[in-house]
Amino acid sequence: MSEISIVPFAAEHVSAIAEIERACFSDPWTEDGLREELDNSCARFLTAVDENGAVAGYIGCHTVLDEGYIANVAVAPAFRRRGIGRRLVQELLAQSADLAFVTLEVRASNAPAIALYTGCGFAPVGTRRKFYSHPTEDALLMTAHLKEGLQ
């Protein structure tokens, strides 16, 4: 098994992340959309790479004041079941001590992702009805509180 490092998102990761997006999501981000995040001062994106520089996955988060909103967590099919998604979430949270909370939406039927987020300290806080399309599905809204007393 290859050694995985979590590194800042960079221009050389864009095309591989776009490929992962196409493999994982029914409404994937484009390369242009991902490239715009490189210059977005409100974006916190991290990339998981192996020792050969292959992109294994990524996480993207946007911040507004002291709030974080995870846009996507994705792991390439060839790298799944190795704890990479968990490492990405944990590293993002570790780098977010300046935030009061981080929140995300997850398909209500995505039990593995819900278990991952729960294991990383997220708790369900609501539902967004018909949030997803292709297929239409509710989203479970989950939040991790990073500062005491803000629940």
Give short descriptive properties of this protein.
single chain; 151 residues; alpha+beta; 7 strands
Explain what you see.
With 151 residues, this protein is of the alpha+beta class. Helix content is 25%, strand content 38%. It contains 4 helices and 7 strands; from the N terminus they run βααβββαβαββ. Strands 1-2-3-4-5-7-6 form a 7-stranded mixed beta sheet. The protein starts with a strand and ends in a 6-residue tail after the last strand.
Q: What is Rg?
A: 15 Å
Helix content: 25-40%
Succession of helices and strands: EHHEEEHEHEE
Number of strand segments: 7
The largest β sheet comes out as:
7 strands, mixed
Proportion of residues in β-strands:
35-45%
SSE order and pairing:
Blueprint: E1 4-8, H1 14-24, H2 31-37, E2 43-50, E3 55-64, E4 67-75, H3 84-94, E5 101-107, H4 111-119, E6 123-132, E7 137-145
Parallel strand pairs: 4-5
Antiparallel strand pairs: 1-2, 2-3, 3-4, 5-7, 6-7
Task: Offer a quick outline of the entry.
The chain has 151 residues and is an alpha+beta fold. It has helices at 14-24, 31-37, 84-94, 111-119, and strands at residues 4-8, 43-50, 55-64, 67-75, 101-107, 123-132, 137-145. Helix content is 25%, strand content 38%.
